Amino acid sequence: MSRRSLQVIAIIVTMLPALTLVGRFAIEGAGANPIEEITHVTGEWGLRWLLCALAVTPVRKWFGWSSAAPLRRTLGLAGFGYSLVHLSTWAFLDLGLDLGAILEDLAERPYVMVGMASFSLLLMLAVTSTRGWMKRLGGRWIQLHRVIYAAAILAVIHHFWLIKADYRPAIVHAAVLAVLLAARLLWKVRQQA
Fold it and tell me: 89: which residues sit within 8 A by CB, 6+ positions away?
């Protein structure tokens, strides 16, 4: 399968959760709390696509699947896109873009502050993900894009802190992130041995 075909498939797959949500709203109606539903679904999928982006490098290195390399950017941008909708739903639909309410949420709710920190890092990575930025930054581009690990850690913390009852999804996300970080560390140790 060509890289282009793989990219097209990845783009289609990353759109499926959003299309499923829209389809469900169209068929079943918006439900009792559509804002909460949109916020929840887009936040979880933003984190999932971010973790998938982080999985590309270990898969490429450990299993020799070099054709997966371009998927990292596609999956990372999908994670950013879902996170952007997640944040926008909170800011626009939930709080009506009331700056006072947004600042109050940031100050009083640690999970909002951590989520905003994660999003800020993702925004920086999305803006600098183009080939033009890669050329401008040179070797520093790779160093900058390692910030994705901090963004993922903050996103997992955000997920844990906002949950009130069922911690299982957050535990799964944290476990996947731990495995991905361990795989990266083990690869470094293996290269130095």
Answer: 35, 38, 39, 42
Widest Cα–Cα separation across the chain: 58
SS3 124: helix
Instruction: Compute the chain's Rg from CA coordinates.
Output: 18
List, in order, residues 6 or more apart from 1 with CB less than 8 Å away: 67
* DSSP result, 43-60: HHHHHHHHHHHHHHHHHH
Using DSSP, state whether 122 is helix, strand or coil.
Answer: helix
- pTM of the predicted protein model: 0.91
Phi–psi pair at 140, nearest 5 degrees? -70, -20
Sequence-ordered list of residues with C-beta below 8 angstroms from that of 52, at least 6 positions apart, any chain: 75, 79
Query: Is 87:110 a contact under the CB 8 Å cutoff?
Result: no
Coil/strand/helix, residue 74: helix
In sequence order, which ranges of 33-109 are alpha helices (DSSP H)? Answer: 34-63, 71-88, 99-108
Per-block mean pLDDT, blocks of 10 residues, the chain (193 long): 82 95 89 89 96 91 81 93 96 91 92 95 92 86 88 95 89 95 87 74
